[in-house]
Amino acid sequence: MAGAPVLEVRGLSKRFADRAGREPASWVIKDLSFAVDEGEFLTIIGPSGSGKTTLLNVLAQIETASAGELFFQSRTTPVDDAKSLKPGLSCRIGYVTQEDNLLPWRTTLQNVLFPLLVQRRLDSETRARAQSLIRAVGLSGFENHYPHELSGGMRKRASLIRTLVYDPPVILMDEPFGALDAQTRAQLQEDLLRLWSLGRKTIVFVTHDIAEAIALGDRTLVLSRSPATLAGEHTNPIPRPRDIRGIMTHPQFAALYQRIRGEVQ
Amino acid sequence: MATPLHSSSPSVARQAPVAAWRRARSDQVLVMVLLLAIWQGLSLAFGTYWIGSPWGVTTRLVSGVANGDIPRHASYTLLEATAGFLIGALPAVALPFALRRLPILTAILDPFMMGGYGAPKLALAPLFILWFGIGIESKIALVAITVFFIVYFSAQAGVRALDARLVQMAQVMGANERDVARHIILPGAVAYIFTGFRIAMPYSIGGAVIAELISANRGLGYLIQLGAMNFDTTAVFVALTATTGIVFLGNWTLDVLERRLLRWRPRTNLDIEAGS
Predict the structure, then answer these.
(1) pTM score of the predicted model
(2) What is the biggest distance separating any 2 CA atoms in chain A, rounded to whole angstroms?
(3) Which residues of chain B are at the A interface, by a Cβ-Cβ cutoff of 8 Å?
(4) What is the pLDDT of residues B39-59, one digit of tens each?
(5) Is residue A79 part of a domain?
(6) CB-based contacts of B54: which residues, under 8 Å, 6+ apart?
(7) Is B5 a residue whose pLDDT tops 50?
(8) What is the span of the domain harbouring residue A111?
(9) Per-residue pLDDT tens over the stretch A31-77
């Protein structure tokens, strides 16, 4: 889909405020620029501690940047001042974090309905949407369970559909399947691709797993070790729909994997 | 597909705690019999003039309940304690929420709050009786001020224990300040607030009784005072037993409320063994 990118950063840099008596903090992100197209599934890969989470926090506007510009639908939005940050950019950028961050005092259903509740959009239509998402990820029967009564995989599903339910045009995902076993992870990746193919949201998906980045993405950005700069960019030639579990046997997988691995330090 | 943790072994998980619960109950009866035996022994050793016997206390308690004396005095004490508890606890819960966004004001108030917390409130009873008279007002005031400082610090701890990531998530989803306070901070602080309630509850009843001891013509504290003046230790023990009964009643009420409000929490073995 051509046209202006939906989300773009230019010259993004970030370092945390230095504390008294310490050396000035080093850069976490340095002069990073990239753009995300409407409906694109962008995966970002980088070694642990390369500032991936910080990058998403800046994109989600829950953290400031030290320098650089952030454009959403070609409009610039301030990123350098904590007071003017707009977390989630008025519900237009959804964020699925590494931890599920479900509210422990709300049931699965109440957690999924939470964004609709605070956005004052709870009605029969949005409730039905929540129910259908719960069914789509296999959480039927667990609507009235509290988070501690769910398995890790189920909590991830709940946290994923909690963002999908209010339909933000852009969704950021921070290694959402990182802590899961291989089987559950493949299942969730399939769920995610299926849901994405239905709605074609713009997704920025951060991971440290090269195979996952290839399996999911239309395009993969490689970040260098801290400070994060752009080390490489790869358009993914593997056509959709993809077979997640068999992705490694795809003829173009190996070459792409090798190229990316060469850049991930 | 993963299964929820709870459905894995419901029958096994249920049977063991029941046995443990029974065991705990039977042991509690044993301890009670032992304590009563000690009491009886002391009563025999020193004479009922100094220590009323358990049996004498029981019969007096039963007749006191039957003729309406004990319920009348106990309900008066309970009224003072409940009113004082509510008047003290509600602002103590609300204040840390109001001060959440005002760190400087909180820091200014902190030493004064700490002073209020540390000061022996029971020593204020004579002062309150001077100010508010010997009626119910002075008792309520004493209970309220005692409860306030205890609950304030536990509610403040609850507000401070907040998980910032949950707040950020809610904000990303469009929650405003009020949503955050209502749906994130308050539910997260409930456990802390109840810890404060639990500590404050016996103090509220104790505070009411002590204020009555100093000057009153009704209430369990008055009964204690009356018994002591008449050299009637049995009457003192009867009033003390009734006071303990009220504390148990208060604790039970808090248990029920807490279990309702915190039903989202994973149960620990301790909870189950306690029969909750």
Answers:
(1) 0.82
(2) 57
(3) 1-6, 165-166, 168-176, 179, 183-184, 187-188, 190, 264-266
(4) 999 999 998 888 888 989 999
(5) no
(6) B36, B39, B40, B43
(7) no
(8) 93-167
(9) 999 999 999 999 999 888 888 999 999 999 999 998 999 999 988 98
Q: B52-265, what's its fold?
A: MetI-like fold (1.10.3720)
Here the tokens at position A153 are 């995989």
**DSSP reduced 3-state for B214:** helix
Q: Which residues on chain B are in Cβ contact (under 8 Å) with A107?
A: 264
Q: Which of A91, A105, A187 is nearest residue B264 as measured by Cβ atoms? A: A105
CB contact under 8 A, A105 and B187: yes
pLDDT in tens, B85-138: 999 999 999 999 999 889 899 999 999 999 999 988 888 888 998 999 889 999
Contact check, Cβ <8 Å, B176/A99: no
> Can you say whether the dihedral through the CA atoms of A166, A95, B188, B256 is positive or negative?
positive
**Does this complex have an ipTM over 0.85?**
yes
Residue from A63, A61, A69 nearest A15 by CA: A63
Q: Does residue A83 surpass a pLDDT of 50?
A: yes
Do the domain assignments include residue A216?
no
Paired strand residues for B254: none
The answer to whether A87 contacts B176, with C-beta atoms less than 8 Å apart, is: no
Locate A109 and state its tokens: 């259903």
